Amino acid sequence: MAIAKAERLMNLALCLLGTRRPLSKRELRESIEAYLEAGSDDSFNRMFERDKDDLRELGLVIETVENLDGEVGYLARRDSNRLPPITLDAEEAAALGLAAKVWQQARLAGAASGALQKLRAAGLPEDVDPYEAHGALEPRIPVHEAAFEPLMLACRDRRPVLFDYRKASAAHPEPRHVEPWALECWRGHWYLAGWDRDRGAERVFRLSRITGRVRSRGTGFTAPVPDVVTVRETVASWAGEIADGTALIRLRSGAGYPLRAKATRVRELGDGWDELEIPYGHGLDAWLVEFGPDVVVLEPAELRADVVDRLRAVAKG
Questions:
Q1: In what order do the strands lie in the sheet with 63-66?
Q2: Which residues of 76-94 are buried (b: 16+ CB within 10 A; e: fewer)?
Q3: Which of 190, 170, 166 has its CA nearest to residue 180?
Q4: Which residue blocks in the chain are alpha helix, DSSP H?
Q5: pLDDT 10s digits, 7-42
Q6: Are 191 and 183 in contact (CB under 8 A)?
Q7: CA-CA distance, 73 to 75, in Å (whole number)?
Q8: CA-CA distance, 222 to 85, in Å (whole number)?
């Protein structure tokens, strides 16, 4: 559905940019296949008005002109919609080329490849190859979850979604009705931040815990969308990046290197175990569970209880 809409918007934009005179609604309907397939005049009018508003929101300058007969026509003059030349120095072009390397999977790979071709034309040096397999920098954003693509589109289009979500401490998934704000990647895991309609509060969902299909609901948002910085802070807090205390754990020797990197104190206990003091914040229990039998929580008591609950939920399947 999103692809069909994008194609329809592109066709409308091309018609408006390619004409030398204003085109009426009737002429536009006869020129675009998707409009011909509209079931009725009312359906077409609603579709056209939404598309016109979407194009204007994307920055296309569309003029409305009334001819001598009183008929309204539309056009987008090229001189009003022409971007200034884009010039990049070698460092800027190389940085953008490196960013294009990040997305090498799913539908974003094609977009990244097309962007790289434009960067070549804009000044990316030929000897800079961001796709070189043996470069010093190998940025990757792994996307394995099937929920990523529909959620990405829902965030872009501001469309509420429904999905089944299994909390780490629960044995079975529950339905969630969410207004999606943004997707963020922390510690190699993807999270969705948004407004949970059923709970009336902001929530963060780890994509790997979304089960089944993500369904869209075109009813619009009911809660205001915070700015990007606030969303990132929310995800960081829920993902355990913001700590307000410390925890004491036992860690098997030779294991849990990410935990060791976070530790503020390490003490050898002998018998193949070490004692670590690590920052404690929201989401630490979920992270500790990933290390399985290599980690034992000593304190605080509430963190130990949360980890035990999560392990019991996993054991129950």
A1: 23-24, 72-75, 63-66
A2: beeeeeeeeeeeeeeeebb
A3: 190
A4: 2-18, 25-31, 33-36, 41-57, 90-102, 108-122, 148-157, 228-238, 257-262, 284-289, 301-316
A5: 888 999 999 998 888 999 999 999 888 888 887 888
A6: yes
A7: 7
A8: 40
Task: Provide the sign of the torsion angle of the four alpha carbons 85, 87, 92, 95, taken in this order.
Answer: positive
Question: Which of 136, 121, 124 shows the shortest CA–CA distance to 96?
Answer: 124
Determine the Cα–Cα distance for residues 248 and 264; give it in Å rounded to an integer: 10
Task: Write out pLDDT tens, residues 115-146.
Answer: 666 656 555 555 555 545 445 555 555 667 88
What is the C-alpha separation between 287 and 139, in angstroms, rounded? 23
Q: Are 77 and 60 in contact (CB under 8 A)?
A: no
**Whether 162 contacts 176, CB under 8 Å:** yes
Note the pLDDT tens digit of each residue in 58-113: 888 899 888 777 788 999 988 877 766 667 676 776 676 666 666 555 455 555 56
Beta strands at 243-252 and 295-299: parallel, antiparallel or unpaired: antiparallel
Q: How far apart are CA 81 and CA 67, in angstroms?
A: 22
Distance between CA atoms of 124 and 120, rounded to whole angstroms? 5
With contact defined as beta carbons under 8 Å apart, do 288 and 301 qualify?
Answer: no
The amino acid that residue 57 corresponds to is E
Evaluate whether 240 touches 287 at the Cβ level (below 8 Å): yes
Q: Could you read off the pLDDT of 191-238 as tens digits, one per residue?
A: 899 999 999 988 889 888 898 899 987 677 888 888 765 677 777 666
Confidence category of residue 1, pLDDT binned at 50, 70, 90: very low
Q: Give which of 255, 253, 244, 242 is closest to 288, Cα–Cα.
A: 255
